[in-house]
Write a structure and sequence with these properties.
This protein is an all-alpha fold and 175 residues long. The chain has nine helices and no strands. α1 crosses α5 (85-99). It is globular.
Length: 175
């Protein structure tokens, strides 16, 4: 149970974090016609209207985004702006990597994100706590845990669940 959630959380975190970056990146690179300040959107606001002004490529890109991705970008833009520059750069790169994935992989990540979004807030917070604990492990232990979790894929479901619980107790004995 632990590894599935951890893997799911990592994928979702990657997707959500990646989605945040694009409007600011376009703004930084000057693809919005020199617009400064505000949210980087003109005209349509949050209604899905004209989107960013300036470069036709950027406007076309914005119009071609699915509604749910546009809304995610709008909702998280201000949060993104508050992040340090190095985190913004990392998120921009993740977003670009996501956009370059084959459609099947992007669809799988979207499915995982939707599952994450539909979870109870308490369940999400519990998973965030587990992820924070995972990140606090020394690098060697994190790599070992990743490998052990990866090895679970070939096990039958009951054995996989039992082994997952064992790993959780091994790496996080305080839970």
């Amino acid at each position: 149970m632990f590894s599935k959630r951890l893997i799911f959380f990592c994928g979702c975190l990657l997707l959500v974090a990646s989605v945040v970056s694009t409007p600011a990146y376009a703004k930084k690179k000057g693809k919005n016609g020199g617009q400064s300040g505000g949210s980087g959107y003109s005209g349509g606001g949050h209604s899905g209207g004209p989107g960013p002004s300036g470069s036709g490529n950027l406007q076309q890109w914005w119009q071609e985004l699915p509604d749910n991705e546009r809304q995610m970008l709008r909702d998280r833009y201000e949060i993104f702006q508050g992040l340090p520059e190095d985190q913004q750069d990392r998120l921009r790169q993740r977003w670009q990597n996501y956009r370059e994935l084959p459609p099947e992989q992007r669809q799988e990540m979207q499915k995982k994100y939707n599952h994450w979004r539909e979870m109870d807030p308490e369940e999400r917070e519990r998973m965030r706590g587990t992820f924070r604990k995972f990140k606090s492990l020394p690098e060697g232990q994190r790599q070992q845990l990743r490998q052990e979790l990866h090895d679970l894929r070939d096990l039958p479901p009951k054995q996989r669940e039992r082994r997952r619980e064992e790993l959780h107790h091994k790496y996080f004995p305080d839970d």
